[in-house]
Design a protein that fits this description.
With 429 residues, the protein is an alpha/beta fold. It folds into two domains: 271 residues, Spore Coat Polysaccharide Biosynthesis Protein SpsA, Chain A (Alpha-Beta Complex), CATH 3.90.550.10; 114 residues, Hexapeptide repeat proteins (UDP N-Acetylglucosamine Acyltransferase, domain 1). The protein has ten helices and 31 strands. The strands form eight sheets. A seven-stranded mixed beta sheet has the order 5-4-1-6-11-8-12, with helices on both faces. Strands 18-21-24-27-31-30 form a six-stranded mixed beta sheet. Strands 14-19-22-25-28 form a five-stranded parallel beta sheet, with no helix packed on it. A hairpin with a 3-residue loop joins strand 2 and strand 3. The longest helix is centred in the middle third of the chain and has 12 residues. The relative contact order is 0.12.
Length: 429
Amino acid sequence: MNNVSVLGMVLAGGEGKRLYPLTVERAKPAVPFGGKFRIIDFVLSNFINSRIYSIFVLTQFRSQSLMEHIINGWNISGTHGKGRFIIPVPAQMRTEDKRWYIGTADAIFQCMHLIEDFAPDLVAIFGGDHIYKMDISQMIDFHIKNGAICSVSAIPVPIEDAKQFGVIQVDKNWRIVGFEEKPTNPKAIPDDSSKALVSMGNYIFNATDLVKILKADAENNSSSHDFGKDILPSLVDTKRLFAYNFYTNEIPGRKGARHYWRDVGTLESYFYANMDLRMPEPELDLYNMKWPIYNYHFSLPPAKFVHNEEISPTGLPRIGKAIDSLVCDGCIVSGSTVTNSVLFNSVHIHSYATVHNSILLNEVEIGEHCRIRNAIIDKHVYLPEGTSVGYNRQEDERRFFVTDFSHKRKNEWLTVIPKQRSVEKLPTF
């Protein structure tokens, strides 16, 4: 990508309905992930690590948390020089009817002035709501080599999961010969009937072509103004629409041939993606400093584990420990047991409590003798002494939000406790 000007545009305005109640007060890309990060940190880190430093982040629904995160944690202009920026862009309402964005293509169209003012050679339009590592410069090289109008990053997924994505058919040169957005019956990969090739929602466009395409689409009253539903299918006949195989992408410092990509669009997928990080050798390696994931770091003390009493004054063990878990800065595990869990910053778990197979976001406090399992607990929640979560479905449904796990875990459920506005202790349930 030498001597090629690239403008990054991140689509970060989605409601994230399937992540409710984690998205009650925040956009999906702003949802915390992996103990220290937000979902959007992954795509922004991919841009920066790929040496693409000019980025607009297009926001819309419940954008305050996301914008604060970008402003506080992603100000690169002061240290990296002119032409290097990450700027959140609220919905522009630049149409005659002053509407919000009604599709992904409409979002870019309403921000067309940003493209025209910047005048890049290429525009990299990426989603802000997936978890992965990718060297975008390699996709750009692929795009240029093939003389493409548009290149779409693609990955094979189990065919039963392909219904929620744009499904791609390609020829031997990875030219796209067919594209269907969220088909009822996805077409399988020719040599593997169990998988389908799907769009990751990341696109490289020639800037001049993109401007023409979006202006024409805006004038089409029958269009839903969406890249997957309208733009990409319309480009198939040009024979200059290509799929970029994500599995060919190489990341410095990656061990083996692991290519991790997760759509964390549901509570269950979000839960499992966080749990993936606990593994001894996770497919998504957060410890690879040759391709770091950047974020806003709080000045917090180290995590600590206190008390080591086989028999306490109560007659019960009182040992602070965490096993097969991620524990972040500021956490205090006080005479309690944490297993198979992810603790975000400043979580405090009091004595005799147990936390199993759960995700606790920032500043959660768990009282003595609490029992927590199969739960996601959002920020600032305080659970009083003796609270039980994940052991009685009827009680969980009465007090919190409950959703089923997939068929792989029958008779189990996931309990989600929404964010509280302050760290003040809540009344006893």
